[in-house]
Amino acid sequence: MKTQKSDTDLRNKKNTTVLGKESELLETVIEQLGKINDDASQFIQNERRHHSLPSPDVIKEVVDALRSVLFPGYFGSPELTRDTLHFYIGSTLDKTFRTLKDQIKRGLCFVCEEHPDVDRCTICDERALTITKSFFSRLPAIRRLLSTDVKAAYEGDPAATSSYETIFSYPGIYAITSYRIAHELHSLGVPIIPRIITEHAHSTTGIDIHPGAVIGECFFIDHGTGVVIGETCIIGKNVRIYQGVTLGAKNFSLDKNGKPVKGIERHPIVEDDVIIYSGATILGRVVIGKGSVIGGNVWLTHSVPPGSRIVQVEARTEVFQEGAGI
């Protein structure tokens, strides 16, 4: 019994010593992370602003609610009828309006430079209300565009059995829906939130569409994984692209401090009725003319006229004998 007690005392003593060392380590790390200097300031919410940032989780709920209104019966309440549709849309939009307005206000307040020292900025509150009203007035137009995207997905994919299937299951429709919502908010000057929306869709589908891009109706992304569409892209009507396509920038103009200049037009313009096959990379402010077809794995950094057919150089087949070709 004495030996057992001695062993227990020894283990407790060792544990106390270990915990003491861990405590010292934690205190050191806390002290270092708690120092606010120039390097660390970017990771710390500006202490002058007593506002919460927009919540990605709440914004996702807003997008889900809007999807249930834009595609009623597919998402949200599955038992809608013509008699209950009006009530469902009304109650959903009423709640979503208030939630979105609060999130927009948070985003505006966080970047506001006019009154950064006050807890409540009436200017941001009024602006959030105006923006939310404008955004909601555009919902019918968003649904009209999405209806053309769904039609393009069904008609452009021989594997699609119905338009319902594309709405329910196609990652391209999910990403485009998120983009169309985010684009309207972006065009209304909403900070942070549009990028949260498209980056969530990016993480879910592998399709990265910047909310600043301008995309016409009847847009179809087939398969989708690895698609990148840059901020200043302009895409016309009836455009179809496949997985792995990049519409990116060739290079970046730098300011006097060697940092990229923001907001300049640096991404491609894709005109109407263009098809871009998988793995194609198109870089810079180039124009892909109407009705062109860009083949798979093509690397393109110059404009092409309407009706172009751009493909890779044809591979050659040769016979190598007795070590030839090594």
Helix-strand blueprint:
Layout: H1 2-33, H2 56-70, H3 82-111, H4 122-137, H5 139-156, H6 163-169, H7 171-187, H8 193-205, E1 208-209, E2 214-215, E3 220-221, E4 228-229, E5 234-235, E6 240-241, E7 246-248, E8 269-270, E9 275-276, E10 281-283, E11 287-288, E12 293-294, E13 299-300, E14 309-310
Parallel strand pairs: 1-4, 2-5, 3-6, 4-7, 5-8, 6-9, 7-10, 8-11, 9-12, 10-13, 12-14
Helix pairs in contact: 2-3, 2-8, 3-4, 5-6, 5-7, 7-8
Helix % is: 40-55%
Quickly give the CATH architecture of the largest domain. Answer: Orthogonal Bundle
Largest sheet: 5 strands, parallel
The SSE order reads HHHHHHHHEEEEEEEEEEEEEE
Salient structural properties:
UDP N-Acetylglucosamine Acyltransferase, domain 1, 326 residues, serine acetyltransferase, domain 1, five-stranded parallel β-sheet, globular, alpha/beta
Would you mind describing this structure in some detail?
It is a single chain. The model has no long low-confidence stretch (mean pLDDT 87). Helices cover 45% and strands 9% of the residues. The strands form three sheets. Strands 1-4-7-10-13 form a five-stranded parallel beta sheet. It has two domains: 49-206, serine acetyltransferase, domain 1 (Orthogonal Bundle), CATH 1.10.3130.10; 213-314, 3 Solenoid (UDP N-Acetylglucosamine Acyltransferase, domain 1), CATH 2.160.10. It is globular, with a radius of gyration of 27 Å. α2 packs across α8. The chain contains eight helices and 14 strands.
